[in-house]
């Protein structure tokens, strides 16, 4: 069983309600009877991807159970183009009271939100806020650090590889945190990054993983929405850590662990707030490790002592320790975080520079 405990939806919603949040706007949107509620989910990929979109689809299914009288709308594989704006407007025209957009669409969404002030919009990994627009994400960097500790112990060469999507903060945060975790136990470890300019392209991710292995990497990490990297690792007798779900069946000997996602409690909580007339727009909610994201159970080939060491680090983080404390240098050797300073959650969320030892990302 994964460490991420599957609490009941009501308990998860209650825990989320008690989480510290930034101050939100003062005036909530009006209450809506459950029988009149329309809840929409708009996805960047297909729900069959087994990854990011799949996990958000699970949240929709959980919400259907929690609010059986509500109507639900769902659209998959929405392109980042004018088609997205048309889809979001269609949600509003179909009576949506609350819309979850499960990836960042920026102005393509905000232009709709500005015209639909009675509808609540939540954008995953978003960066804009208003009276009816907010965003949410997970503190993935903490889990990546823990996985990096295991990687540092398991890699025989100290040469790690990362297969990512675009040069965005999520990639910087993943690669950086993973390497910093590895360097905490293997100071000379390095990380080579290859970006494929897509979240879901199994052929491209397979090619990138193969290229990294041919270049001497013996442990991979990826945040993409498919398991191609794990499958390539399995065929080449190297290790791999992944994102989103438990994918060990696709590479049982290569599988280190996965950064798990569970949006269920958050989405149920937000819908409940909207129906009760308690929902307001405002700053981002960053779900912490242990609630919304965590590591999966260790793979079969992870030595027990390695798992225990990484889990001890996890326990320290859960107790309040911040591993992202200075001195931290960037890839050019410049000190970005001085001794005595620590990176804040927002600085980690917006990370846009590679740490020392990371190649393949611009500074």
If you had to describe this structure to a student in words, what would you say it looks like?
The protein is an alpha/beta fold and about 375 residues long. The chain has two domains: about 10-140 and about 260-285, Response regulator (Rossmann fold, 3-Layer(aba) Sandwich), CATH 3.40.50.2300; about 140-260 and about 295-350, Rossmann fold (3-Layer(aba) Sandwich). Helices cover about 35% and strands about 20% of the residues. It has helices spanning about 10-20, 50-65, 80-95, 105-115, 140-155, 170-185, 200-215, 230-235, 265-275, 305-320, 345-350, and strands spanning about 40, 70-75, 100, 120-125, 135-140, 160-165, 190-195, 220, 240-245, 255-260, 285, 295, 330, 335, 360. Strands 12-10-9-8-6-7-15 form a seven-stranded mixed β-sheet, sandwiched between helices. The chain has a six-stranded parallel β-sheet with strand order 2-1-3-4-5-11, sandwiched between helices. The protein has a two-stranded antiparallel ribbon with strand order 13-14. A hairpin with a 5-residue loop joins strand 13 (about 330) and strand 14. Helix 2 (about 50-65) packs across helix 9 (about 265-275), helix 5 (about 140-155) crosses helix 6 and helix 7 packs parallel to helix 8 (about 230-235). The longest helix has 15 residues, at about 50-65. The protein is globular. The two termini are about 40 Å apart. Residues about 1-25 have low confidence and may be disordered. It holds the Pfam family Bmp. InterPro entries: ABC-Purine-Binding, PnrA-like, TAT_signal.
